[in-house]
Design a protein that fits this description.
Number of helices: 6
Structural class: alpha/beta
Largest sheet: 7 strands, mixed
Order of helices and strands: HEHEHEHEHEHEE
């Protein structure tokens, strides 16, 4: 059952609906690994997940969570690199790409995603999307860089070619204005 808890959970729940066993997916911001785990479970043993983060602590936490849940290493590739470099590491079309912007919840909040690398990464993600695939971006405008990312992503999404992509921007109407925002982009089938 779909629960409307917040933008982050809605993002993951929606993307899981796009995935089939054997698909490839990207977690562009691995963080503590919860989204990576959900993607691994959705693509199944025959699928492949590429998980990116610039912090080794994040990848270590992701690896531990995957091991705790018996997800085998051959299903997932953990990549210590910026999400802006997706195309250097992902060697196939993907069915979905998930971004959960901001900072590592348990980490140094001065280390946050940045607008230039985020824009480069979402552009790369669109180029990697298979027909009918989806891109999800959860953006947190409650801090200075997050507000910049939101404004840039709104402009970027509004400029996508409607013949190639459908772009949805969503927010929870009864939450604070600086609550997380969700973008869901689907490539035409």
């Amino acid at each position: 059952m779909l629960l409307l808890r917040n933008a982050r959970y809605l993002s993951r729940d929606l993307l899981e609906g796009f995935l089939r066993p054997g698909d490839a997916a990207v977690d562009a911001t691995a963080g503590n690994g919860h989204d990576t785990l959900a993607l691994c479970q959705a693509v199944g043993p025959a699928g492949r997940v590429f998980a990116f983060d610039i912090q080794q602590d994040a990848l270590d936490a992701t690896r531990a969570l995957l091991a705790e849940n018996h997800v085998l290493d051959e299903r997932v590739r953990l990549i210590l690199d910026s999400h802006a470099n997706l195309e250097r590491h992902v060697d196939r079309p993907v069915r979905c790409v998930l971004f959960n912007l901001g900072w590592l919840p348990t980490g140094d909040h001065r280390l946050t995603t940045r607008t230039p690398s985020t824009l480069a990464a979402v552009g790369a993600a669109l180029r990697l999307l298979a027909p009918g695939g989806a891109l999800s971006i959860c953006c947190y405008p409650g801090h200075e860089e997050g507000a910049r990312e939101l404004a840039a992503l709104q402009d970027w999404a509004a400029g996508l070619d409607i013949r190639q992509f459908n772009a949805l921007e969503a927010r929870f109407a009864n939450q604070r204005e600086d609550s997380p925002k969700l973008f869901l982009i689907q490539r035409a089938p």
